[in-house]
Amino acid sequence: MKIAFTTKGTSWGSAMDPRFGRTEYFLIFDEEKDKLSAYDNRAAANDAHGAGPKTAQKLFEYSPDVLITGNGPGGNAAAVLEKTGVKIYVGAGDMTAKEAYKAYKDNRLKQF
Amino acid sequence: MKIAVASGKGGTGKTTLSTNLASFLAENYPVVLTDLDVEEPNSGLFIEAELVSEERKFKMIPEWIEDKCTLCGICQKVCNFHAVIQLGPMIMVFPELCHGCYACSELCPEDALPMIRKKMGQLKHFKKGNLHFVESRLDIGEEQAVPLIKQTHKYIDQHFDKDFIRIYDAPPGTSCPVMEAVKDTDFVILITEPTPFGLHDLTLAVETMRELKKEFGVVVNRYGIGNDDVLKYCQEEQIAVLAKIPNDRRIAELYSQGKLIYREIPEVREELEKVKELIIRRMEEVVR
Q: What CATH number should be reported for the domain whose range is B2-53+120-287?
C-alpha cells in the first residue's frame, strides 16, 4: 500500500497540513518498501484558483492507495480524486504525520 | 455620465449610497442604477420597481471530445487557471475555474475542445418612473464574476443612451471584479468609514484607482465614529471628501427595513445634494 499525507514538512515528525489543495508538502509512504518520500507543493500558494485540482493531479502521478489529510478536499479536487480511486481519510489536521499514520492503522480516522 | 460607487472595505455603505443617490437623482433626471456586485447583489432590496425584462447569461467553456483527443497535454499546459486537467487517459474540465479565454480550445491540434455555452447567471431589468434598475446575479457555485460584470456593462450600453446618469454599485475589495466594474466609468466614489479598518482598505482602493487612472472622491459614512485619520489621509493625499453621512441609529433602522434613508433624514439629503452638485457640474463640463 502507498499512503499519502498532506504535511507542513518532509519527515514523519512533520505536522499535518489540514488543507489539501494548498498543502505545503505531501509525503508518500510505501509500506512494502518501507520508504518515505516528500513532494514540495509550496508553489500552490501562488495559485489564485484551481489549487485543488492541480494538487490532486500531482498526487495522481504518485498513485497512492490512501490519502490522509485534515479538512478534506474541496469540490473540484474531490472530483479529480474520485477518478483516481484513492481512499481519503480526514480529521488528521492536528497530528504529526506519524500520529496520523498510527491513527489510520488504528481505524481512528473518518473516511471522506 | 458613469459613476461607480466602490470601497476597499466591505460593509461601508456602497449599496446605501448607490440606492439613495440613484433615487435622489431620479427625482429630476433619468437614472439607471446597476448592481455589479454580482456575487451578492443587494441594491434590489431597497428599490421598488416593476420588472421590465429578464435574461439568462452564459459564458463559454470547453467541452472535451474523447474520440478526437490524442492526450497531447497542450490544453492543460496553456490553462493558467487549472481549469483543464489531464488525468491519465482523460481530460477533466472545471467550468467554474474557466475564464473563457479559448486558449485550450484554439490551441488544441485535434479540435477536441470545442467551446460550448454554460449558464452563469441572470440579469433583471426593473423600472419605476425615471429610475431604471438593472441587477445581475451569479449562479450558486460560479466563481468568475468578471464575465457577468462585462456582459452587464454591455447590456447597459445597448439599452441606455447618454442622457441617463448611470450609477454602478461595485463589488467590495480591490480585485478583478472591482476593476472590471469601474474601468469604463467617468468617476468613482470611494465610500469608507472613519475607522482604522476603513482607512486601511481605503488606501488600497485609492492605490487601485490611481493605477487605473480614475478620477475619484471619498464619501465618509458613519461620520462621528472612530477618529479623524481618514480625513487627515484625504487631506494629505489631496483627495476630495465629497460628503459625510452621519452615524445615526435611525439610518440603521431604516436600512434594516429596506427603506431609503434620504427621504426620512434631512441631513442625509443635504449630503447627497453635495454629491449631486458635483455630478451635475461634471455633466455640464462634458457637454461644453
A: 3.40.50.300
